[in-house]
Amino acid sequence: MTGTGIGTTADDRLTWLMEGLLERTPGARHALVLSRDGLRLCRTPELSVDRADQLSAIAAGIQSLSQGASVEFGDGSGGVRTAMAEFHGGVLFIVEAGEGAHLAVVTDEEADAGLVGHNMSELVEQLGEHLSAKPRHPTSATNPSAATDPTAARNATGIARNAAGTRNAAGSTGTMGAAGTTGAAAVTTATTTTAATALAPRTS
């Protein structure tokens, strides 16, 4: 754990609650709490520190792009109920969880999306104030729309690209780079390819 401001006892409770979600949700593999700007806050033990950092960057990028879509094509608020990326070998779900924090869950392809969403919502309510996390670079009070600005979305996508690029430089990096420059049309391809590369089950 790095720079979260959450004590060990609270960390243990967060981990315990997230492990409970995995136990109640058939097909769920990993759960992670992250800050809005991609800082890992808490993870389930099956997820290594390196892969948790990688997942945090990917989830922050997807969530930022979803917020941008909400601004441009939704009600303009930037609010996102659930962001989801389906890829070969699994599904990534992301929900808002307190001020400046997100909850991400990786599941098998066969997992019941309705049950996953329900259990994630219950977990967010249980965690309450523990999931409130200020970003490392807070949005300026004079520019409240910065969090959903297209430039911010591209920057978040770049974070995800850097985290996952070393695993598949020829494939994932190029795809994520395309998302940063071509916009919404490439979002599905970019997030799906990168998430699949980084999060698909490893074979021995």
Automatic annotation (TrEMBL):
Organism: Streptomyces stelliscabiei
One Pfam family here: Robl_LC7
Biased composition (Polar residues): 139-148
Residue ranges of every copy of the Roadblock/LAMTOR2 domain listed in the record: 15-107
Stated name of the protein: Putative regulator of Ras-like GTPase activity (Roadblock/LC7/MglB family)
Region Disordered: start-end pairs: 131-153, 161-180
